[in-house]
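Severity: low
Component: inverse-folding endpoint
Summary: output formatting inconsistent between runs
Steps to reproduce: submit the following structure tokens with default settings.
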């Protein structure tokens, strides 16, 4: 017997940000209502027409695939540091936050972590402020850093524009 299709009431909402980002009349209220529903009834959502160029997203995927295809020894040259930037190898961490069970198995994934790209003379870098370090970039992978920084900058701009949608969803001033 085939599985029952999931009712639309449980589908992950897709919020179209295009009209809102274009400042179309009523679009902010519509997006805020959709966001409120998504976060109070479902707990998750996806966005489309967010303004982050798909070519940039594709390039980031391409660059990350290039990084992960490198030999382990090359990736370990930028191993995750105390600021949580760099490479985390397969089985390199055991996340122990479960309240249900005592987690003892290491994570079965690898990852490259970065943060906002700060200059070496930035006060937070100089003072070694926790979680505000310089990113670690692979030296032998030209063209890797630039699209990732550009992507993070694009996501930060998007997040700043989403603040007013979240504010409206919470019935706060959207300014």
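Observed output (run 2 of 3):
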């Amino acid at each position: 017997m085939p599985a029952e299709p999931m009712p639309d009431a449980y589908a992950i909402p897709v919020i179209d940000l295009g009209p809102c980002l274009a400042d179309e009349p009523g679009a902010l209220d519509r997006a805020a209502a959709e966001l409120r529903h998504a976060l109070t009834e479902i707990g998750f959502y996806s966005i489309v027409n967010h303004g982050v160029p798909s070519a940039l997203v594709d390039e980031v995927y391409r660059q990350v695939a290039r990084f992960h295809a490198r030999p382990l020894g090359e990736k370990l040259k930028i191993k995750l540091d105390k600021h949580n930037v760099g490479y985390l190898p397969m089985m390199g961490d055991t996340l122990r936050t479960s309240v249900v069970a005592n987690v003892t198995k290491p994570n079965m994934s690898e990852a490259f972590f970065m943060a906002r790209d700060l200059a070496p003379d930035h006060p937070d870098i100089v003072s070694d402020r926790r979680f505000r370090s310089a990113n670690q970039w692979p030296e032998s992978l030209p063209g890797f850093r630039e699209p990732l920084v550009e992507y993070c900058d694009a996501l930060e701009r998007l997040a700043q524009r989403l603040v007013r949608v979240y504010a409206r969803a919470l019935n706060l001033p959207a300014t």
